[in-house]
Amino acid sequence: MAHWLNEEHGMMREAVRRFAEKEIAPVSEQLWEQQAFPYEIWKRSAQLGFTGLPYPEAYDGGGGSWLSFVIVLEELARVDCAVANSLMANSSVASLLSNYGSEAQKQAFLRPILNGQRIGSIGLTEPNAGSDAANIATRAVQDGDHWIITGAKTFISNSGTEISGPVVIAAVTGTREDGRKEISNFIVPAGTPGFSTGRKLTKIGWRASSTCELHFDRCKIPAANLLGTRGHGLRQTLAQISTGRILIGALALGILQGSLDRSRAYMKERTAFGKPLTDFQALQFKLADMATHAHAARLMLYDAAAAKDAGQRFDQQASMAKLFATERAMEAAHQAIQIHGGYGIISEYPVARAFGDAKVLEIVEGTSEIQRMIISRELLAQ
């Protein structure tokens, strides 16, 4: 056991793994085929304390560590990455509310997404503003003691379910002295007039994680729903990005480990040309690479999470861990399909479903190219 892990971490891993194998694995294919949000699993995750694990107990959080949360996401993603992503995306909203929300906002909006009554969404991405977040076009205009929001968002995880809301959206609220856009964050509850959910997006992965377009047609919210300081929206969101990269890396680690576990089990069961698959060195090497990469990714991610828990800087570590884990997860998912042969491309087999999930991870929370830009910039600044 690594020096930063203790008995509590081991017990957490065992509990999550039992939950994932018993309650998620049997319905994973059905969720994938139907693109259905797992309401019962979400409810049960909340009861077990997974949804609010690293957040304050005062708001129904678990008061746990980020390292423990990484382990939770890893074990869930090992079985179904889409289910794990619902918790990950919810945590992004929880971090914004926990770090910048007023006491009233925390009571009204943070508590329900930590105890599982609701599920939160981040509304940052737009059709023409992905990695270039400063290019958002959604606008918010103050009208007395209200804000009027007009615009659209896309690729929004956790949207479109019966328990979705609140969504924290970024909107342009003016122009700075240097000519750049002033961007602020707002809390928009479900059911607010002028706020509607558009089409549900069909993805190659994360199919059980509901992802929709959002529309704001003169959506009117109270002035009290401004999150934190006006004009600090982008700063607030970017401050959570490194944490998000650790968590996306945890999902990738789950896929990596799941690909290894399934490939090893399949090789022990199958024969070809009169010999067990375990006798073929080419396949043995694939397992060796998966195991090596899973171990390296785990060390990187746990180190970054431990640094966050200790209050140390971890931005570069997070980008490195996210880059390595997601690219190696994609590679492992590919090789797992090769090992499974024809069965590997049938959706009833988890390795097929994991392949699409792995590709998504190389895109969200900053593409691999963005991570390389961040890492190289940090290195050259030293």
Automatic annotation (TrEMBL):
Residues 231-380 form the Acyl-CoA dehydrogenase/oxidase C-terminal domain. Residues 6-116 form the Acyl-CoA dehydrogenase/oxidase N-terminal domain. Pfam families: Acyl-CoA_dh_1 (PF00441), Acyl-CoA_dh_M (PF02770), Acyl-CoA_dh_N (PF02771). Keywords: FAD, Flavoprotein, Oxidoreductase. The keyword rRNA-binding does not apply. It is an enzyme of class 1 (oxidoreductase). The keyword Ribonucleoprotein does not apply. GO terms for molecular function: acyl-CoA dehydrogenase activity; flavin adenine dinucleotide binding. It comes from the Bacteria. Residues 122-219 form the Acyl-CoA oxidase/dehydrogenase middle domain. InterPro entries: Acyl-CoA_DH_CS, Acyl-CoA_Oxase/DH_mid-dom, Acyl-CoA_Oxase/DH_mid-dom_sf, AcylCo_DH-like_C, AcylCo_DH/oxidase_C, AcylCoA_DH/ox_N, AcylCoA_DH/ox_N_sf, AcylCoA_DH/oxidase_NM_dom_sf. PROSITE patterns: ACYL_COA_DH_2. Its EC number is 1.3.8.11. Its cofactor is FAD. SUPFAM superfamilies: Acyl-CoA dehydrogenase C-terminal domain-like, Acyl-CoA dehydrogenase NM domain-like. Belongs to the acyl-CoA dehydrogenase family. This is Cyclohexane-1-carbonyl-CoA dehydrogenase.
